[in-house]
Design brief:
about 290 residues; mainly alpha; 13 helices
């Protein structure tokens, strides 16, 4: 049964997973700590949302409101670490928007270190929050024109999600034993989010022949990992088959790629919308450029 075929349903599933694991964390906090965490999270979320809308004066105001209280928390406590997980990525986005790139990147690395510490204290699921920060780094690298770095990192993260382990991003090789079914769903969500977003960003900003060269650099890492992927649902199997369609593209057989992609679209009219859009973009590219 297809459950995650639209962007909205994918986001809804991600929100439910986030809420579940947020409850796991909150269960370890006292009522007093929760009453501290909630308003801080609210200020930082407002800072993030105003940053996204371009209202930087308001964003700065809400971050400063939260920071006044955040700085009074005893460092190293569970409450302090939970606050850092909320604060640092959101402030990093604000700094990215204000052009303070180095500070933004440092904050993303800082929050990943904080999450690693918490993983070792029993919150193993935070490895997926670190994957989200890796994705944020990919986005930042693309935005600043660091295309090679963005492609390499995206490829390694997606390969990890497909295989369940990484030879290069060894910090992600965390034993995941507490909620295996939810972890598989998390992996699928991030495969869809990161891989197809990366492919779509590449075709939007790179021109031939550089585009095909760079896409093949990505596929060189992704395709062998996709062969190893063990789908846990119909959705996941469909995504695997979508990725493997690119084997013909990688081999330079663009006519066969288009034929397979067209047949795939007919046989699978319902599929994850970003994956469908990705296939449409690349078949159009092949027909215009190589056929």
């Amino acid at each position: 049964m297809m459950l995650l075929t639209t962007g909205a349903s994918l986001m809804h599933t991600a929100e439910r997973l986030e809420a579940f694991f947020n409850d796991v964390l909150l269960a370890q906090l006292t009522q007093k700590d929760k009453h501290t965490l909630y308003p801080l999270n609210s200020w930082f979320l407002k800072g993030l949302n105003y940053s996204k809308s371009g209202s930087m004066v308001l964003a700065k105001y809400y971050f400063e409101q939260g920071e006044r209280y955040e700085q009074t928390l005893p460092k190293g406590t569970l409450l302090w670490r939970a606050v850092q997980n909320e604060y640092l990525p959101k402030k990093a986005y604000y700094l990215y928007k204000t052009g303070e790139r180095d500070f933004a990147e440092k904050m993303l690395h800082d929050v990943m270190l904080n999450m690693q510490t918490m993983e070792q204290q029993g919150f193993e699921y935070l490895v997926f929050s670190r994957i989200q920060q890796y994705h944020n780094l990919v986005r930042m690298y693309f935005a600043y024109g660091q295309t090679d770095e963005a492609i390499r990192l995206s490829a390694e993260v997606v390969a990890f999600l497909l295989k369940g382990h990484s030879e290069k991003l060894i910090d992600l090789n965390v034993p995941l034993v507490q909620h295996p079914e939810k972890y598989e769903l998390f992996k699928y969500l991030f495969i869809c989010q990161i891989l197809f977003e990366t492919l779509n960003v590449m075709i939007a900003f790179l021109k031939e022949p550089q585009l095909t060269i760079k896409v093949n650099e990505l596929l060189q890492v992704i395709l062998p990992a996709a062969e190893q992927y063990q789908p846990f649902s119909d959705d996941a199997d469909l995504t695997k088959q979508t990725i493997l369609l690119f084997e013909s593209f990688y081999a330079g057989n663009y006519k066969l790629f288009c034929e397979k992609a067209d047949l795939f679209a007919v046989n699978n009219p319902v599929q994850y919308i970003q994956a469908k859009h990705c296939l449409e973009l690349y078949t159009e590219l092949c027909r215009k450029t190589y056929m």
